[in-house]
Design brief:
The complex is a heterodimer. Chain A is mainly α. Chain A folds into two domains: 75 residues, no CATH class; 264 residues, ABC transporter involved in vitamin B12 uptake, BtuC (Orthogonal Bundle), CATH 1.10.3470. Helix content of chain A is 71%, strand content 3%. Chain A is built from 13 helices and two strands; from the N terminus they run βαααααααααααααβ. In chain A, strands 1-2 form a two-stranded antiparallel ribbon. In chain A, helix 3 crosses helix 11. The longest helix of chain A has 30 residues. The radius of gyration of chain A is 22 Å and the shape is globular. Chain A starts with 5 loop residues before the first strand and ends in a 5-residue tail after the last strand. Chain B is mostly helical. Chain B has a single domain, classed as ABC transporter involved in vitamin B12 uptake, BtuC (Orthogonal Bundle), CATH 1.10.3470. In chain B, 69% of the residues lie in helices and 0% in strands. Chain B contains twelve helices and no strands. Chain B is globular, with a radius of gyration of 20 Å. The N and C termini of chain B lie far apart (63 Å). The mean pLDDT of chain B is 88. The chains are: A mainly alpha, B mainly alpha. The interface between A and B is large, with 54 and 50 residues.
Amino acid sequence: MNWAKIRLERRDEVTWAWRLFCFLVAILGTLLVTGILISTAGKEPIEAFKELFIGAFVGIDSIVETLVRATPLILTGLAAVVAFRAKIWSIGQEGQLVLGAIAAYWASIVFEGLPRIIVLSGVICLGFVGGALLGVFCGWLKARYRVDEIISTVMFNYAIFYLLTYLLSGPWQPPGDFYVQSAPVIEKALLPNLLQDTRLHGGLFIAIVVAIIVYILIKRTALGYEIRAFGSNPIASSFKGIKPTRMLVVVMLISGGIAGLAGTSELLGVHGRLNTDIAAGAGYTGIIVALIGGLTPLGTVIAAVLFGAMVNGGFMMQVITGVPKSMVFAMQAITLLFFLCSTLMSQYRIKRVTEDV
Amino acid sequence: MSEFFTETIVISILAAMVRIGAPLILAAIGELIAERAGVINLGVEGMMLMGCFLGFFVTFETGSILAGIGAAMVGAMLMSLIMAFMAITLRLEQFVTGLALNLLASGLTLFWFRSLLKTIGSTQPNIDLLEKAPIPFLSDIPYLGIIVFSHNWLVYLAILSVPICSFFLYKTKYGLELRCLGENPRAIDMKGLSVAKRQYLAVLFGGMMAGLAGAFISVGSSIRFVPEMTAGRGWLAIVIVIAGNWQPKWILVAALVFAFLEAFQMHVQAVGINFPYQILLALPYVVAVIALMHRRARSRAPASLGVAYSRSS
């Protein structure tokens, strides 16, 4: 057996053409593997991909819907960008999103009698706070008790989901209702539409604004510099006076808050009431989006739109070809796996080791 | 309250604890071996889910539970092969790879569930449960007989895996090598032994155990498959390894504690006590976080856990 008889050697220079080539190989690989999977279900892959594309991009309605699907992914992706840049491996975007939505819904009840502008800003602020609280708590657990953030954030993803189902089958369930969902959010708290007669809502505006803020934060501010320094070497950065505890709390506050906004935007822009589909995996998909976007805000927005397109196109694919839309989620994970390999491939060359080990 | 805690009820809760604990033990022992070899496999949840689906699907198609369990193990091992290739050969971030595998399993099982298992009318496809196999004589022991010795054979296998793993780790040459891998892979390399080969095998073993654990959750305890059926148990297995301080016997204890919480929750829900059961459902996950807070100062975590070995660095 040839165990690990290949070695990776870093390339001295990486040309753009080579990088593009690797990227194309990743896309081809994804399409190939996904195509094989579609065949396992006894369906025609080319046909499925065609409908996926049409459903995602052809016609103004499709494009609008793609953007609606991309909105939460932009936000959860940005949340992951902020955390991962500091090498804090938070995968709690899903739970933070849900807690953000819960907080926003609660705010919409509390602020009911106030003027619209106050209600709207209050609801959005609380949505941020909801997600941020959970983020900070996990950051604090890591700083104070060395609880691994990967584990704690995942555990709270599950715990918060049960909190949501409790609220929706108890306190917030309208009397006499059998569905696990809340009453509709008051009209005043709903996000305004951006384009008449479509589902395009103010959440996209929030997402773009947050993307710009995150860009400025990382690139142009002292805090952004600290985040990057902490991420590349926490020990060295501590000699520069960057305290790990403060970093953990601040980064998780921002990251959690942004994920909370994703929940707020879904609640007030898409669903209009709290239900168990509020997250629908957007937290986890956001992580893929951030990684494929190279942990940059611009890359994340682009990747989020592409992934939103996949989800949206999936509906058309399911209706026309009968391939279940859940295929899209498998496809997204496969994209990530190929993308990881292609990034590595673009930076290294593979060398066969000839000497006897 | 006295009626709530009669003898029969306590025994049935404890028996449920052992049954529910079995997949946790299987997955945690598999993860322990992988982590002792220095590879942190965060894809356990996905591998379990894959095993869970394949176990159900193949049993449904072939009518043979053994074939289902075999398929579950092979499927999860294939996933762990991807994990091993990306983590050991390509030396990619282990956390990201594990996460990608979870998402892959989540999407793929849902996709196959929707496309391969057609609902006939209003009836969901279902299978026969893995039969109980009470151990002769032992199952007649008062209390203990019902609690431990009256389950299906997968449960016994899970319990046996703990002493076997312990023996392997501490009493065999390969166990010593494996422990050394996680602490100081260079030493293994210097002796002229292959680091990659051992790590591959450890990760594949972890995958196999996760597949077995997943199969238990479908064919061993339910007649149906439900999307996301593993519901975080793979993650709990990872917590159990940490809470058990990377030692088989404490892993057994930790697994049983989590299993008890779930058994208790199921009982409360079944009795219909007026208490929001969702809070009890969330309890294991909160307890998991608390369990990690009280980590001893002397952690037995392998020193080079999660760090890919490279000869040149």
